[in-house]
Structures are given as structure tokens and as C-alpha cells.
Amino acid sequence: MKKVTIQDIADEAGVSRVTVWKVMNGQKGVSEATREKILQKASELKYNIADAIKRDNILMDKKEDGGIKVSNIAVIAARPETSVFWMKILNQISAELSKHDLHCIYINLMLEDFASFKMPQVIKNGDVQGMIIINAYDERVIKILSESEIPKVFMDGVNKVPFREMNGDMIILDGKDSVYEITDSIIKRGRTEIGFIGDIDYAISNYTRWKGFCLAMEKNNLSINKNFCFTSGFEIENYRGNIEKFISQLKCLPQAFVCASDYIAYILISILNQKGYRIPEDIAVSGYDNNREILMEDSFLTTVDVQKDLLGKRLVAQLLYRIGNPESDYEIIKINSKVCFKKSTDF
Fold first, then answer.
1. Pair (223, 128) in one structural domain
2. What is the CB neighbour count within 10 angstroms for residue 249?
3. Whole-angstrom Cα distance, residue 80 to residue 43?
4. How far is residue 304 CA from its own chain's centroid?
5. 141: buried, middle or exposed (CB in 10 Å: 19+, 13-18, 0-12)?
6. Among the residues of the chain, which ranges form H helices?
7. Does 27 share its domain with 138?
């Protein structure tokens, strides 16, 4: 299969190669609309950042200067090309590390790599001084990486690996308060039959969103109808099929669905529309993360506005703190994002 290059993305997006390079390197001088378009095309073409670093010189390589060895940071990411969300974070990380004269070493993981994953040689050899781990929601992978004494920061984690065993810091999008606010608002508007869709075993962040939903129901003296909740058993490559099967098995539908992500919410809305249901007149739907990857009216979906443009910077800042303060107690940094109420819950 032909490797996707910066030129391929430029051709698809109708921009120059330099403009694509600027976006991939986190440089200024590109409008937000153009930046979004380029990242979307890169995701669609399944652009492999790890290969591209060597081939297209996305990052300005930091060489040794005056005999001083350049520090290396390993950025370990699972399937970042599948989502503009992760592509953005990777771009921010690379740009931020470049500002500090740190060299990025990308280690990209595919699903098929999880079962055979071993500690990367570059880490075992001591060639890196820190690690940032994102989108690696696999118990085995996290446990192996946690064995290293190298300073590290995880973005999110899994419930099966206790934080005390991770041997590093963790930044998490804590959705408990924001999902509580969304669910409580739906209840206050008069709808009490509410379901939840999201794999709560997949990530700690998903679990916090489930807890926010449960707390809102409890505070309003409402019992949770488990038949309306799809919280486990998702197949990562077949989300639509999973949700379609779940909906088809219900004898009746609830008055609202709270979803763990916008991606799930968009799929659900598409399925409900095909069945003739109107959103929000018949069923209200909410999401999480303010993700615009799937084309839909921008002002339609009630969601939680995650500040994607700052996550990469925050991860690097925490890693630099950890490197500079290795004896400091490990930290869990919880990010609470603001709710954006929109038409999908305005009934």
C-alpha cells in the first residue's frame, strides 16, 4: 500500500505542502478552518505520523549542538490517525516539545500490537528521558509501560490498572460534574426515562461520565432502567453495529439518551432518524467533547467543550514538571470542561 505523504494531504485539502507542514508542526499562520480541514483529510487518509516523521520531516529535528546531547521524549499513541482529536493532541505535543529543544520519538500502536506489546527498545536502552502515553486503553500495555522508572504522564487510563500501579502522573477529562449537569437539566425539563450509552470499562474518563449520570438520577430520586443503558461489550471497530443492535432489542425507547462521546451521539442520532424519531422532540440526545469530525449542524448537539488546543501543552508541562521533580508525589490532574447546551436537548 502506498504511503500517504504531506503532498497527498495537500492535494486532497486543496492547500500547499507548506501549509500542511505548518499544521503538522503546530506552527502559526493557518486559519482554524483550514487547520480543521487538513487534520480531517489526514485522518481520512490514515496518515501515519510515525512513518511521516522520518519521511516528510514533520518535526524540525533537533541535533546535538556544541557536544550537548539532545533529550528525547517518547510519545506513545494507539491509532492516532483514526481521530482528528488525537491528531490535534499529537501536533500540539510535538510543537510544544520543539519549543523546549526536545526531540519527539513517536511509537504508534495498532490494535493488533496490543497482545504482543513489549517495552520499546528505545525506552529499555535509556535513550529517552520521558514518556507521554495517549489513547492506549489496554491493561497489558499500561502495565508494561508502568514498569519503567522513566518519568511519564498518561492521558487517561483504565479501571483495571489502579493509579498506584501506574508509576507516573495522569491527566484525565473528568466528566462527572458536566454529565451530571446535562442529565439534571434533562430531568428538570420533565423527562425522567433516560438511558446512557458508552463503554465504561474502556477508559476511566468514560466511567466518570457514567458516575455523573448515575448521581443525577439518584439526586432526583429516579431509578436507572438498565435496559436503557449500554455500558459494556462494545467492539471498537463496529460501534454503529453495536448501537444498532442495542436499539433494535429495546421494546420501547427512553425519552433521552446521555452519551459518553459525540462520536456515539452522532451514530445514535443517525440510527434514530432512520427509524423516524425526531431529535429532540421525541428523544433528546447529548454527547461529550465537542467533536466536529462528523458533519452535522454545529449548533445542534448538546455536548461538553473539551479544550483540545491546550491538552497537548498540558501534557508536556506536566512531564517537564515530573522530570524536574522526580521525587514529587504522583498526581492525578482532573480537567473539568464546560457544558454547551444546544438544540438536541432543547425540548
1. no
2. 9
3. 8
4. 13
5. buried
6. 6-13, 17-24, 32-44, 49-56, 84-99, 121-124, 139-146, 176-188, 204-219, 239-249, 262-274, 308-324
7. no
290 and 181 within one domain: yes
Residues in the chain: 347
Neighbours of 185 (CB within 10 A): 18
Residue 217 shares a structural domain with residue 166: no
The radius of gyration of the chain's CA atoms, rounded to the nearest angstrom, is: 21
CA 177 vs CA 209, 298, 311: distances in Å: 8, 23, 19
DSSP H/E element including 103: strand 103-109
- For the entire predicted model, the pTM comes to 0.79
The per-residue pLDDT string of the chain (347 residues; one tens digit each, 9 = 90 and over) reads: 567 777 788 888 888 776 787 777 666 678 888 888 888 888 888 776 555 544 444 433 334 444 334 489 999 998 776 677 788 888 889 889 988 888 889 898 887 888 899 998 888 888 888 999 999 999 999 999 999 999 999 999 999 999 999 999 999 999 999 999 999 999 999 999 999 999 999 999 999 999 999 999 999 999 999 999 999 988 877 889 999 999 999 999 999 999 999 999 999 999 999 999 999 999 999 999 987 665 455 569 999 999 877 899 999 999 999 998 888 999 999 999 999 999 999 99
Which residue reads 496518515 in cell numbers? Answer: 47
With contact defined as beta carbons under 8 Å apart, do 286 and 258 qualify?
yes
Task: Judge contact between 13 and 41, C-beta under 8 A.
Answer: yes
CATH of the domain at 95: 3.40.50.2300
